[in-house]
Amino acid sequence: MEKSTKRLDTTLGELIAAASEVAFEYSDNDRDAYKLAQAALIEILRKASHAGSLDDFGESAPRKSYLH
Predict the structure, then answer these.
(1) Residue 36 to residues 1, 46, 52, Cα–Cα distance (Å)
(2) How far apart, in whole angstroms, are the C-alpha atoms of residue 52 and residue 62?
(3) Residue 61 lies in a domain
(4) From CA 58, how far away is CA 5, in angstroms rounded?
(5) CA angle 57-59-62, nearest 5°?
């Protein structure tokens, strides 16, 4: 592992829960909160991922409410 690599020991579920919790604190409604959490998670995964594309995830909004 490179010296400049930052590592966070967490599960994907914990990451999603934390992003959702913060998004709901800063949003006026559920739809905006889900969009904010989605955008944050995509950006986190994009920065943490290796070569490849995560652009397809940003095109559609979540249809169902799974977190809250």
Answers:
(1) 31, 15, 23
(2) 22
(3) no
(4) 25
(5) 75
Q: How far apart are the first and last CA of the chain?
A: 36
Name the domain count of the chain.
1
How far is 27 from 10, CA to CA, in rounded Å? 25
32 domain residue, yes or no: yes
Structure tokens at 51: 């070569």
In a domain, 17, yes or no: yes
pLDDT by position in tens, the chain (length 68): 555 667 778 888 999 999 999 999 999 999 999 999 999 999 988 887 665 555 555 555 555 554 54
* pTM for the whole structure: 0.60
Pairwise CA distance, residues 45 & 68, whole Å: 21
Tokens 């930052």 belong to 6
Range of the domain at 18: 12-47
